[in-house]
Specification:
The complex is a heterodimer of chains A (173) and B (240). By secondary structure, chain A is of the alpha/beta class. Chain A has a domain of 110 residues: 3-Layer(aba) Sandwich (Rossmann fold), CATH 3.40.50. Helices cover 37% and strands 21% of the residues of chain A. In chain A, strand 1, helix 1 and strand 2 form a beta-alpha-beta unit. Chain B contains 9 helices and 8 strands. In chain B, strand 7, helix 8 and strand 8 form a beta-alpha-beta unit. In chain B, helix 2 packs parallel to helix 4, helix 3 crosses helix 4 and helix 5 packs across helix 9. The chains are: A alpha/beta (173), B alpha/beta (240). Chains A and B meet through helix 1 and strand 2 of A and helix 1, strand 2 and helix 8 of B.
């Protein structure tokens, strides 16, 4: 007999995801505690240049409006590349979401800073699927929050709006 | 779980909090489930404003499907039975064909999946249970009849505050209440109504196929994606 679903009796978490992501939903679902559910709203990631990443920060509020009616208790802006493009871009997206929806919001970037603080990590190695032009602002982001990145290595995979995410490194990288 | 076997994409009403946990729970090994909320105006989970919500969902369906298609699913599922009732078979198939042409992904609907599931058992005489009012329930009956099925009995839940909060025992009793000896299958309409936790028990207790919108769409989505829909615990539709 398969387990019965839980219906988010403890907490329903809404997430704003880049439309092309294939990993975010299954990965998060695998580690959810009992009584906590995840709910998705997707937005288009039109590219990975800084201007495109900043544009989706602005679009986050409108997409998050889809998460008001399922009565989620929290909304997460879940795009790491966009939320670390500037030191405060994730927090800005979270503010936009909160203003639009009236629901508490946070961002991947805030979660990363909090996690590194909790671990007391001041020097980290960065592995990413991104191109270097996305890695560089992320390295600067971590430095801004007190974590040095002596080495940052990207697989140079396109962010998943163009090709599906994969955990396998790009052989040509 | 990474979808190394198949990825299923669902277009769900913005307000539903039940479809995602039900699909995550049912998904077999190696099958991942992904969602996009359809833009809808009006209060959710209640019948007030459902017409307006359906209108917006239909108007924006192709755009919603395009966003969902960016994660390259093996199938796109319209997960809202009442939208299918409004569209009717012909219009739904036309929209589905446009979506497939635009995205390259096969398109199915929860209601189309229900019809396929009933056909799988050769069931022609159906008992219908819904979370709707009488008007929308009759629209469901009409759609079943348009597909060549006979509705021998129907009923709907009374005093529904939000269909998403209907407890399993109410759904169980609804199904038992509409069943008749001459019914060859019971159909529980409404993707948002939580059903999957009672499907196995109903199938055993009524000793006939019990098909819900949510269960049927998972079954059909797996078939379209090339995955054998064997999942123990949800009745004979998912038996080997």
């Amino acid at each position: 007999m398969k387990p019965n679903p839980n219906y988010g009796e403890r907490l329903k978490i809404g997430r704003v995801l880049a439309a092309g992501t294939t990993c975010a939903e299954p990965d998060a679902h695998d580690i959810l505690p009992a009584g906590v559910t995840m709910h998705t709203a997707r937005l288009e990631l039109p590219g990975t240049d800084p201007a495109a990443l900043r544009r989706i920060i602005d679009a986050a509020g409108k997409t998050a409006a889809l998460l008001v009616s399922p009565r989620v208790g929290l909304i997460v802006f879940h795009c790491t590349a966009a939320s670390t493009i500037d030191p405060d871009s994730g927090s800005w997206a979270a503010r936009r979401i909160q203003e639009t929806t009236g629901i508490p919001a946070t961002a991947a970037s805030e979660a990363l800073v909090a996690a590194l603080k909790a671990l007391g990590a001041k020097k980290i190695v960065l592995l990413s699927p991104y191109d270097q032009h996305v890695n560089d602002p992320e390295v600067a982001f971590f430095a801004h929050y007190g974590a040095q990145v002596p080495e940052g290595k990207g697989f140079s995979r396109p962010i998943c709006h163009k090709a599906p995410c994969s955990t396998a490194p790009n052989p040509s990288a | 779980m990474v979808g190394w076997r198949a990825r299923l994409g669902f277009l769900i009403p913005a307000g539903t909090p039940t479809v995602e946990p039900e699909m995550y729970t049912m998904a077999p090994e190696g099958v991942s489930v992904h969602f996009q909320r359809m833009v809808a105006r009006g209060a959710d989970g209640t019948l007030a404003g459902i017409d307006a919500r359906i209108d917006t969902q239909i108007a924006q369906l192709e755009e919603s499907a395009e966003l969902l298609s960016m994660m390259k699913p093996d199938v796109i599922v319209l997960a809202h039975t009442a939208t299918s009732y409004r569209l009717g078979q012909e219009e739904e198939e036309a929209i589905g064909a446009r979506i497939t042409k635009r995205t390259g992904v096969p398109f199915i609907s929860a209601f189309g999946s229900v019809v396929a599931a009933l056909d799988r058992f050769g069931a022609k005489r159906i008992a219908l249970g819904t979370p709707y009012d009488e008007k929308l329930t009759l629209e469901g009956k009409k759609n079943l009849e348009a597909r060549g099925l006979e509705v021998v009995s129907f009923d709907y839940l009374k005093n529904v505050r939000s269909i998403f909060e209907e407890p399993p025992q109410r759904v169980y009793r609804l199904a038992k209440g509409v069943d008749r000896p001459e019914a060859e299958a019971v159909f529980l309409s409404g993707v948002g109504m939580p059903t999957i936790s009672v499907l196995g028990a109903l199938d055993a207790d009524l000793d006939k196929p019990v098909v819900s919108s949510s269960g049927a769409m998972m079954w059909q989505a797996l078939r379209v994606a090339g995955v054998k829909p064997v999942i123990p615990g949800y009745g004979r539709l998912f038996a080997s």
